[in-house]
Amino acid sequence: MAGDYDLVVVANRLPVDRVEEADGTTSWRRSPGGLVTALEPVMQREDGAWIGWAGTHGEPPEPFDAVGVRCVPVGLSADEVEDYYEGFSNGTLWPLYHDVIVAPTYHRRWWEAYVRVNERFAQAAAEQAAEGATVWVQDYQLQLVPRMLRRRRPDLRIGFFNHIPFPPFEIFAQLPWRGAILDGLLGADLVGFQRPADASNFLRACRRAIALPARQSLVRLPDEGGRQVRAASFPISIDAAALDEMARREDIQERAREIRRDLGDPQYVLLGVDRLDYTKGILHRLKAFEELLSDGRIQVGEAALVQVATPSRERVEQYVQLRQDVEVTVGRINGTYAEIGKTPVQYLHHSYGREEMAALFLAADVMLVTSLRDGMNLVAKEYVASRYDERGALVLSEFTGAADELGQAIMVNPHDIDGLKDAVVRALHMSPREAARRMRAMRRRVREHDVQRWAATFLEALERPGAENTEIDLTSAGSEVAP
Ligand code: GDG
User: Fold this and answer.
1) What is the DSSP code string of 413-425?
2) Which one, of 78, 100, 86, lies nearest residue 319 by Cα?
3) Does ligand 1 have an atom closer than 6 angstroms to the CB of 139?
4) What is the pLDDT of residue 418?
5) What is the set of domains in the chain, with CATH numbers?
6) Stretch (H or E) spanning 262
7) Measured between alpha carbons, how far is 398 from 395 in angstroms, rounded to an integer?
8) Nearest protein Cα to ligand 1, atom 38
9) Are the beta carbons of 306 and 282 closer than 8 angstroms?
10) In the predicted model, is pLDDT for residue 483 greater than 60?
């Protein structure tokens, strides 16, 4: 029952979004995500299919061709969206894998939906993949797919990449279905993570939870004739050249100047860009900014903070609460410190086009990335890639994957509010010379390790599982510019 495709990507979402045109017809538009950018060329070259949810519940559309790949929609019922996606993926796994910043919820009904939906994705992949094809499964929503797929199609090469952190065993151990999740992942030939620390957490979980021999980067499966699964880090990146090119455009630069003018031409513009998510440390950032205003270390009118908070997971309880907390805090800061024509915090609960994002990056003197835990954080890399002028300073949480690579950022522990305040002041007052030196080093790193290289490195490691140097290449990726 093999299908036609030599490379199959399996992800929660398709690489396209459905759009309603003015005349009532619907069409598919490429999603903004970096994964599409990374995989598009190789998918076109290799004759690829992409399996994913189309984003609305009910009967899935028929398979179709878009952005140069075969798109195969997987259907989810309204209950499954609630239990598999909002429930188990975003109410159980997401908080558990992000250091239990909020308490994960464990519901057996959610788990059952997760198993059922993972089976459906695995079945779709099994039907599309050609004999001996490569299948690349993405992210925490689909951790059971590798095993389910191997059972159906032992001829395939199966890779898995986890975009979010993999937690230390002491936290992972809470999960009632921890053994099943590990077994699911071990259906793959290669399990990729953002940071070396995530890979070692996974290897340790295999030893502790299911007593498997795991040494260096390999897990041995005695029940499968000694088959070996490799776990290693492959830090994801961005399309750095495209962003650099966009930022150099005159219209984008003009828009950046306009943004500063519309903010009242403050001396300093600070910027945060995040999905509205409790992992991103938005409240910590606001607290630091508020205290800097109350201490008089920055003056209203002198500095403005622009916070883009893209709407996200709006039906999940903790996200509703977070939105309220952020909006109360912004309201309090502005109510206390604003003057006519001078608003300290511009809070924007919208999503913007890529060009507006590039203009915002160019307009910002200081970029604030204060995540409490973040697999990578692409925004940090995007800021760096846009600053072709070598200006601007990046304040970066040490709890991001990006911190492994962007050692020239001003590193912060976002829980340490005094430290965060000092870091912001240091960023504001950094000499242009020092800022340029740091930015140059970070730009080099992001340019040389872009998302195309990420995809190629992963797929190459998947094709050559025994390659001697794989582990060294991959796990030391961050060492060049680290302090
Ligand atoms: C997960 C992991 C890991 C945001 N708002 C708008 C917009 N964005 C874009 C950003 C960036 C992306 O969305 C967000 O990526 P992040 O990496 O910052 O964070 P998550 O969404 O949490 O992503 C993360 C990532 O997966 C990849 O593996 O790095 O750690 O949590 O590209 O620019 N883009 C546009 N308008 C917006 O309003 N166009």
Assistant:
1) -TT-HHHHHHHHH
2) 86
3) no
4) 98
5) 5-236+452-469 (3.40.50.2000), 240-448 (3.40.50.2000)
6) helix 250-262
7) 10
8) 351
9) no
10) no
